[in-house]
Write a structure and sequence with these properties.
Helix 5 packs parallel to helix 7. The chain is globular. The two termini are 19 Å apart. The chain has a two-stranded parallel sheet. Strands 3-4 form a two-stranded parallel sheet. The longest helix has 19 residues. It is mostly helical. It has one domain: Response regulator (Rossmann fold, 3-Layer(aba) Sandwich), CATH 3.40.50.2300. The chain contains 7 helices and 4 strands.
Length: 161
């Protein structure tokens, strides 16, 4: 996500936290290897728990699975309108009117995705990106590919200046 946002020259703050994370843990070595092959350095990454302060500071909350989304909106019902699974948001993106990369592109993208939510079907069975933990390397590569594809779809409505 950071790479795509940087390519569009957007000033977005991207952060990561887990609904059940144990803070301070390093990335799983298999996922770190997958990222290394993509020239993404994960050495400085460590897990952190999604807290109330992080909920409240986020303009958009994207989760890997529907159950994570449910945890977020249960903890913070006022976050419902800005919480999606990554794949849900990516599914809405094709219905979003294209826009130029600008300081307000993030807010505009979110507003247009929320509007599209009422007209674009979101099949529940395709909302999740499966957690690869406990599986072979192939599952980690598939997970990374699914995330990459969803992020590309999510950013597609935004065009460079």
């Amino acid at each position: 996500m950071r790479h795509g946002v940087a390519e569009l020259n957007l000033d977005w703050r991207i952060s990561s936290a887990g609904t059940q994370a144990r803070p301070g843990r390093p990335m799983h070595p298999r996922m770190a290897d997958v990222l290394k092959r993509k020239n993404i350095d994960a050495d400085d990454w460590s897990s952190r728990l999604l807290t109330g302060a992080l909920f409240d500071a986020a303009d958009l909350i994207l989760t890997a699975e529907a159950r994570h989304r449910a945890s977020v909106v249960t903890a913070r019902p006022n976050a419902l309108h800005r919480t999606f699974t990554l794949r849900q948001f990516a599914t809405l993106a094709p219905a979003v009117t294209p826009m130029l990369a600008s300081p307000d592109a993030g807010a505009t993208l979110l507003e247009r995705a929320r509007a599209a939510r009422s007209v674009v079907p979101l099949p529940p069975d395709s909302a999740d990106i499966d957690d690869p933990i406990g599986h072979r390397g192939r599952a980690y590569r598939r997970c990374a590919r699914e995330i990459d594809e969803a992020i590309a779809d999510l950013l597609r409505p935004i065009t460079p200046y």
